[in-house]
Specification:
Blueprint lengths: L6 E3 L4 H11 L3 E4 L5 H6 L7 E4 L9 E4 L2 E5 L4 H6 L1 H6 L1 H6 L6 H4 L4 H7 L5 H9 L2 E6 L2 E6 H4 E3 L2 E2 L6 E8 L4 E9 L9 E9 L5 E9 L6 E2 L1 H7 L8 H10 L12 H25 L1
């Protein structure tokens, strides 16, 4: 199928882009890498009269390293994240999630901001953003505001951004000390969206006990989820934690687990529990060796 007719706009600055979004209203949609939006348009799952292509806005393509923070511009390509050695050492969880996104052709076109703004609950970047407590900077003709990850994702393909707002960047806090990071997910074929998965970060204190833990879940609800019950249960424990039990704890209270032709809700829970268990084991092992 082919998409319906639309007018394409190609602004070269953030100010120009948000002016267009403010003028065109709900009939406009931001186009970044197009790896999610274009298939939806082609299948007539979505239709817009105007597409605002932000790919020519140079200020949105950047990775900045500040004290304790990594700021990733919205149109930074997935491939840049995947192959940037400084980002891999400073923000390992984001870098390690990237090779699991589709195939390399998709990562050569897909963008960090596009994935976060699309808010697919089975996607990797939203889960990482939520787990690490990222902040999203969004702009409109009214100015710039910051939305924390725990308020940003509201439902399937739905965020807290208004129709006239543009995602400019995502700011990720970095972790220092004896840390371990891991991403585990299960998909039926390489490159498919995960049936369920987990992103995990842990930090060990001076007494070899876990003093900080973050667990993000993907594919297990209408939004990416944070397994706060597991995070609280792990903090203060030594490294010999019962990861299988914690995996089951992570999914025990989930009420909106999807059920479709790829797997029932109960199957996704079992897969999710296994992914949490394995990711926790991986992250703790890495922290011990750090």
């Amino acid at each position: 199928m082919k998409p319906g007719a639309f007018d394409l706009h190609a602004p070269t600055s953030v100010d120009e882009a948000v002016a267009l979004l403010g003028e065109l209203g709900d009939d406009a949609k931001v186009l970044a890498g197009g790896q999610s939006l274009v298939p939806m348009l082609s299948l007539r799952l979505a239709s817009f009269g105007h597409l605002v292509d932000v790919g020519r806005i140079a200020e949105l393509r950047s990775v900045g390293f500040d004290d304790g923070t990594v700021t990733v511009g919205a149109t930074t390509l997935d491939a840049v994240v995947e192959h940037d050695p400084e980002l891999a050492s400073t923000l390992p969880l984001l870098a390690r999630a990237t090779p699991l996104i589709g195939h390399f052709q998709i990562r050569n076109r897909g963008t960090v901001g596009g994935s976060i703004a699309h808010a697919d609950p089975a996607a990797e970047y939203p889960a990482v953003a939520l787990a690490l407590g990222a902040e999203m900077e969004v702009a409109s003709v009214r100015g710039v505001r910051t939305i924390t990850a725990d308020r940003f994702f509201e439902g399937y393909w739905t965020t807290a951004m208004d129709a006239d707002e543009l995602l400019v960047a995502a700011r990720f806090p970095t972790w220092e000390g004896r840390c371990g990071f891991a991403v585990r997910e299960f998909a039926r074929r390489f490159g498919d969206f995960a049936i369920a998965g987990a992103v995990v970060a842990v930090r060990l204190g001076a007494d070899d006990r876990i003093d900080h833990c973050a667990v993000g879940l993907l594919g297990l609800g209408p939004t990416p989820l944070r397994a706060t019950t597991v995070e609280k249960a792990v903090v203060g424990q030594g490294t010999e934690v019962a990861t299988d039990e914690l995996g089951r704890l992570a999914v025990a209270d989930l009420t909106d687990v999807p059920s479709d032709l790829h797997g029932s809700a109960s199957y996704r829970r079992r897969v999710g529990a296994a992914m949490v268990s394995r990711a926790l084991s991986d992250a703790i092992r890495e922290a011990i060796d750090a």
